[in-house]
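Exercise 3.2. Students should predict the tertiary structure of the chain below and write it as structure tokens, then compare their answer with the key that follows.

Predict this chain's 3D structure.
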Amino acid sequence: MEKIFWELYNADSETEVKKIIKKHQIFHDNENWKPYGGNKGNFGTFESQQNHPVPALIEKITNSIDATLIKDCKLNGLDPKSNEAPKSMSEAVELFYGVRNGEIGELTNTERRELAENIQVIATGDKKQPSITIFDMGEGQLPSEFENTFLSLHKNNKASIQFVQGKYNMGSTGAVVFCGEKKYQLIASKRNKKLNKGIESEIGFTLVRRHPLSSNSDDGKIKATWYEYFSPNGNIPSFKSVKLDLGLYNRTFEYGSIVKLYSYQLPRGSRSDLTLDLWRDLNQYMYHLPLPISVYENREYAGKTPNKPVLGNRTRIIIDSRDKVEKIIEFAIPKESGLGDIPIQVIIFKNEVPHNDFIKNKSIIFTQNGQVHGSEGQSFISQSLGFSLIKQHTLIHVDCTNIPTEIRQDLFMSNRTHLKQGPKTEKLIDEIISLLKNDKELKKLNNDRKNSLLRDSSSDKDLLASFLSKLPVDKDVLNLLKKNGSLNFLKSKGTQFIGKNVNGKKNGKKLNRFPGIFNVNLKENKEGKLYRTIPLNSNGIVTIETDVEDDYLFRPIEKGEFQIEVLQKQNQTDKPVDLNPNPNPNITSDVLTVNRVGPSDGTIKLLIKPNEKAKVGDLLEVKAKLTSPGKDFNCVFDVKVDEKISKPKEKDKNPTESFPNLPIPKKAYKKPDNENDTAWDNPNLNWTGEDIVKVMPETNESGELLVEAIIINMDSYSLLSFMSKNQINTEKEIKFIKDKYFLSIYLHSLFLFSIMQKMRRDDDHLKPIDVEEFISKMIKPYASFLLYENYHIEKFAFAE
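Answer key:
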């Protein structure tokens, strides 16, 4: 059996495995194959997992991390399922590896690299469809235990272990589906000697495949095949060995497990040099890794180094890439929201940072134990939040690790790829939008980038005004431009962008690594108490001044904690507050929802809102605490729930017809002559001659998506090529063609936006589409047609 193992292990494609199976008669007997999980109906379990090969591969790596932590737990004399075992991954890493707070960022580069070599992802074979091997120095399994571990389904082997990721005993089956056409997977494992009473165990191995149906047998009557594993004479093949040279990076195989996925179908953008493309993907999906892992490129690529540690983007951002970050803003959804404690980090990268480095197609990520369980694209940032100018450089991390189990099960699919559609998900999304959409810091960052693009463009506005004034007085045209017509997504009031100070005025406050200031900005009442009154149907903001760096609660090294406690001073009542409320409250209250924003530029904001349990007259004491290595900082203030405030009466609408302001027209050039025009190399544009138009949407206070501005490339290859081919040389002709091109692109972009918005409202499947990006891509091939259509129809179609 050892010879067969080496043949299989050294094979680097499914074609080679097919030859090995054909060569050895033992593989031909169907009696030597057993259905995976003991059930021939396992096809649905395998095929209903991840729909993408990268997150499917992540499940294999997650199992390796789990196996490594379980091994170390047992070696420390603890039962992983006992109450004495760690309650989280970070606790486990701190206990087993002596890493403070369980943060691998606390380790040195050398320590991280050495630790990463215990879990390796190795690429061999073909450059388009490589074979991927995952190795770990975990606990390993005896051959007799394969069927209860590697080859089992739905047994909940790890459900009661709190410090591991795996729960469902089926996630790793998803990767097999992406193994070439035959779905070959090799599994080999050897038990750690110390966990086997000091006895050296044999190495067990098996081959997994999708059962090949034959038309010449009973298989021909079966509608669906199944997945099976090699088990000659009903046993897992095994052989004796102390150490094996498996071609690992800086390691020999003494114990642990290996899984080899043959001809793995990695997508474009992930299949080249492992230390570049897949390394980037793994960092994104495993955002906050409890243990580092190592990727090892063993194909013929001329990289600087074949080996590279994967730390997770959270650690990358703080340890290795702080110079790439423009701003980190902390938010928090409290447990009073009904969803649990949910920290949120918003990371805005600098303009020059490539989108794929940290974000790719996952602009908002929802994680549990650091692994991405769902995500949304950049349309969420531009359309749901209204921040179109920072959408390509913004990453929102929503940490769902501490939410209760019953809520987690309503939020996430078991395959860890996306959120379920349902009331819990809607509530979570609404909370995120409510917290981020009106944040002044995010608005400022978006507006700063907007201001760099939109200077005074009065001449462009004059051109549009002149054109529109010459429109025929047609009822349909007028209705189209009315505020309540088809263009009702246009702004009713214009916005003026003035000045060149893109970054705005800086705060100027010196921020420190640890806090030295923690003062609440509230006035004292007659009794000398810090006091805030909040209407029952509204909310209030309390700001706390501090001097700590923005990443203090987020960074993996020397981070602090912010704690909020709300205590009931006055019993809930609809009557006025008692003159003698409890001066020393000790009963925790949940009638207030307190969301935190910051620290940001030396300020922490508390967004306080009475919830449905609150009543007029409630008096509460709010205690805020910021931990620090030297000393903890505390501040205390009172909140009184007051009478509801009435909504302002709406003024009578003017019966006269109103027309909307059209979006700001803007021209962009490769090298503009006018300082008010926009250049291609503006960091918020980054255009080439291939680009045609950029539609800049924003949301108003009612949440409607409006068009703020439309920027048009006046040096586009389409325009320059058209003028060259048609020998347009005179100043008059050039101006005529450019003006017509400008108007055509402007109006077509405007109406395409209107059409797409209507389609998105009517069809939920279209909502993830980023309208701005869609229009930009659609207009590229369309621009040349508009130029030729306008010019030649006018020139020839109506000639006498």
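Discussion points: Confidence is low (pLDDT under 50) at residues 471-487, 491-506, 572-580. The chain has 18 helices and 27 strands.
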